[in-house]
Design goal:
The chain has 208 residues and is α/β, with parallel strands linked by helices. It is 25% helix and 29% strand. It has one domain: Rossmann fold (3-Layer(aba) Sandwich). Helix 4 links the parallel strand 3 and strand 4. Helix 2 packs across helix 4. Bound molecules: S-adenosylmethionine (SAM).
Length: 208
């Protein structure tokens, strides 16, 4: 997995160190433990949800430009893997997940593995106002547009990395930076994510 990350352009020593250290096999289903380090998304214990592909986790976390002691928000806890990688980069992490069972399992797992992550259950499109502001925010699901409540929870100089749907079936990983009180956005390339469901996201799916 590490060779593949380097081959695909991951350069940050902190991110590479974190990816090498977080035990991905602890975050996947029992049946998938043998290929926990394959570079692909794997199912987690909720219909249609996945633990993201390691390369995508590394790309997102590198784009967050985390520094030791940063306050970071992870929207869409899922298994808790990306939150653990962010914490392993030295950030104090708050993570929010809309599916209660996932939030609970991830919170227990992250506590057992001793990562500095506080897990909330709720609609992450609204951020976590009681823990804001954040130096960095990662969104692990595709938004139909820029989630403004999240952008408003950034400190000056803060970074928000979010996949935004450009057209059906195609998302663009987007980084927003708050510079001198203004939002600057840049495109980081195409990506694929499950939908972000909530007040400032997509409507609840029929299957929910
Ligand atoms: N980063 C996660 C990991 O490491 O396992 C995987 C994220 S998974 C691709 C996307 C997650 O976002 C799902 O668990 C889904 O339930 C969650 N989600 C979708 N909409 C959400 C919302 N509005 N607030 C919080 N979580 C949301």
């Amino acid at each position: 997995m590490m060779a593949s990350l380097i081959e695909h352009g991951i350069r940050s020593p902190a991110v590479l160190h974190a990816m090498a250290g977080v035990p991905r096999e602890e975050f996947v289903l029992e049946a998938d433990r043998d290929h926990a380090y394959a570079d692909r998304a794997l199912p987690i214990d909720a219909p249609g949800q996945t633990i993201s592909q390691p390369l995508m986790v590394a790309v997102v976390v590198e784009a967050l430009e985390l520094h030791e002691g940063d306050r970071a928000l992870d929207v869409g806890t899922g298994s808790g893997y990306q939150a653990a990688v962010m914490a392993a980069c030295g950030a104090h992490v708050v993570s929010i997940e809309r599916v209660g069972s996932l939030a609970q399992t991830a919170a227990e797992r992250l506590r057992r593995l001793q990562y500095d992550v506080e897990v909330f259950e709720g609609d992450g499109t609204l951020g976590v106002p009681e823990r804001a502001p954040f130096d960095a925010i990662a969104v692990g699901a595709a938004a139909p547009r820029l989630p403004v409540a999240l952008a408003r929870q950034l400190v000056e100089g803060g970074r928000l990395v979010v996949p935004i749907t450009e057209n059906p079936g195609g998302e663009e990983l987007t980084r927003l930076r708050l510079v001198d009180g203004r939002w600057q956005t840049e495109s980081l390339g195409p990506c694929r994510f499950v939908p972000l469901i909530g007040a400032d996201g997509y409507e609840v799916a029929d299957t929910d």
